[in-house]
Design goal:
By secondary structure, the chain is an alpha+beta fold. It is 18% helix and 19% strand. It has 4 helices and 8 strands; from the N terminus they run H-H-E-E-H-E-E-E-E-E-H-E. The protein has an 8-stranded antiparallel beta sheet with strand order 3-4-6-5-7-2-1-8. A hairpin with a 3-residue loop joins strand 3 and strand 4. The radius of gyration is 16 Å and the shape is globular. It starts with a helix and ends with a strand.
Length: 204
């Protein structure tokens, strides 16, 4: 296992191809008007600090709650919510999944080569890559993050300060652990698991 992780550190992420990106129109992302009572019920039901900045990720084995960090990565959080509300992630594959490392998704082609065509400026922060951390995938260019992200299975401290951390799994990590793993150093998955749906918890 240690040998495999060492190889991963040196791996170069394939550059995203601008010619193969999926066009997406700006989503209508108006914030839903919640009564204080309903907001309180939602917060209690999912045990989140802020329902507007938390996601419900539905996987084949169960529901995963992700709390986002708008203070640490405001532009990434805003873009993720925009894509979630446009239902961009629904049905997308976990195309790259490496045992003990991470599960990556967010490519509209299921190959790791695509995105939406809108690149995000890096928002590197002091948040660590640890078990349950949700962080943005990118190519060699630090400002090439788009729609792809990954969830860490364990400590990935060598990624700290090099990828934008924007969320943390706070519930349902056992369902992330159950995502079908790939084979080989690159973690390509045959017949991969998919995202059933993603929602902003405030919208539920």
């Amino acid at each position: 296992m240690a040998k495999e992780i060492k190889l991963l550190k040196k791996e170069k992420t394939p550059k995203l191809s601008g010619s193969r990106t999926k066009g997406i129109k700006p989503a209508e992302t108006k914030k839903l008007s919640l009564s204080k009572t309903r907001a309180k019920k939602i917060k209690h039901a999912y045990q989140v600090k802020d329902a507007e900045n938390a996601l419900l990720l539905k996987l084949k084995d169960g529901d995963v709650v992700i709390e986002m960090f708008p203070d640490a990565a405001p532009n990434h959080v805003e873009r993720i919510k925009e894509l979630v509300r446009a239902e961009f992630y629904n049905g997308l594959k976990f195309h790259r999944v490496i045992e003990g490392f991470m599960a990556q998704t967010g490519c509209p082609y299921g190959t790791g080569t695509g995105g939406t065509g809108k690149k995000l400026k890096a928002e590197f922060n002091s948040l660590p890559h640890k078990r349950g951390t949700v962080s943005m995938a990118r190519a060699m260019d630090i400002n090439s993050a788009d729609s792809q992200f990954f969830i860490c299975f364990g400590d990935c401290s060598w990624l700290d300060g090099q990828y934008t951390v924007w969320g943390q799994v706070t519930s349902g990590m056992e369902y992330v652990d159950a995502i079908k793993k790939g084979s080989g150093a690159n973690g390509e998955v045959s017949d991969p698991d998919t995202i059933i749906s993603m929602q902003v918890i405030a919208d539920i």
